[in-house]
Amino acid sequence: MDIITPGIGLLFWNTLFFLIVFAIIGVKIVPVISKGLKDREESIDNALKAAEQAKADIANLKAENEKEKEKARAEREEIITSAKKKADQMITEATEQAKTEAKKIVDDARSSIDAEKREALAEIKGVVSELSLDIAEKVIRKQLSDDAAQQELVAKLVEDANI
């Protein structure tokens, strides 16, 4: 039974070695492990705090981003409204200018037509008067071919001139 029941010396030395190893572990290893655990706990706390701060920063950035989006939408609407107004103004100005140009062209055309009409009438009057003179000359030559007819015409003209 010696194998099953250990001797007192063995128990003593085993207990002594156990206490020595336990003391070494308690003095050397436990503080290192404890310090490592505290450092790990602090780093986790810091990481959690940083994560909460990042979450708050993200919320702030989202709010700022929404504000900027609203500002950009307002600017876009303002630009679109301004562009529409300018386009309408340009269309109105172009229409007015086209109307003015058309009126000027019509007025110029009327003036030109009137001038050409007057010129044509003057030319027609000149042609008519020449034809009238030619006809009158031929008629008078034919009527005044004898001396008695000439005397009668001169007397009539003198009488008409005195009236």
UniProtKB/TrEMBL annotation:
Provide an example Pfam family for this protein.
Answer: ATP-synt_B
Predominant location category: membrane
Q: Give the way it sits in the membrane.
A: Single-pass membrane protein
Q: Which residues cross the membrane?
A: 12-33
Q: Name one GO cellular component term.
A: plasma membrane
Superkingdom of origin organism = Bacteria
Provide any one GO MF term from the record.
Answer: proton-transporting ATP synthase activity, rotational mechanism
As for subcellular location, the record says: Cell membrane; Endomembrane system
Report whether Transferase shows up as a keyword of the record. Answer: no
User: Where does the secretion signal sit in this chain?
Assistant: none
Q: Which residues form a coiled coil?
A: 37-82
| Keywords linked to the UniProt accession | ATP synthesis, Cell membrane, CF(0), Coiled coil, Hydrogen ion transport, Ion transport, Membrane, Transmembrane, Transmembrane helix, Transport
What is known about what this protein does? Component of the F(0) channel, it forms part of the peripheral stalk, linking F(1) to F(0). The b'-subunit is a diverged and duplicated form of b found in plants and photosynthetic bacteria.
Give the family per the record: Belongs to the ATPase B chain family.
Its recorded name reads ATP synthase subunit b
